[in-house]
From TrEMBL:
Protein name: Large ribosomal subunit protein bL21
Family according to the record: Belongs to the bacterial ribosomal protein bL21 family.
Function: This protein binds to 23S rRNA in the presence of protein L20.
Top-level taxonomy: Bacteria, Bacillati, Actinomycetota, Actinomycetes, Micrococcales
Protein's organism: Pseudoclavibacter endophyticus
Any one Gene Ontology BP term: translation
InterPro entries registered for this protein in UniProt: bL21-like (IPR028909), bL21-like_sf (IPR036164), Ribosomal_bL21 (IPR001787), Ribosomal_bL21_CS (IPR018258)
Amino acid sequence: MVFAVVRAGGRQEKVEVGDEISVNRVVADEDGNITFPALLLVDGETVTSDAAKLAGVTVTGEVLEDFRGPKIVIQKFKNKTGYKKRQGHRQELTRVKITDITEK
């Protein structure tokens, strides 16, 4: 069982080959692939967390689609002053399928 912890869009994600993850909108290369930096690699019983060894680890993914996340409603209210404010937000996201975890 091989999995890695990668940095993706300001967060850390645990990924295996074949997993689909949603990250903040990223731009892929011309082939539609993305490379993530690995923070941790687990290959069976061996755990690699040394930065020098992780420099040779590449986690690649294929962009499946760009989409928008769910609507988040932000409401502010102050009592007795008549102040009300309502605002919404939808985050731009990218769905990525992990295709390969290689170690040099």
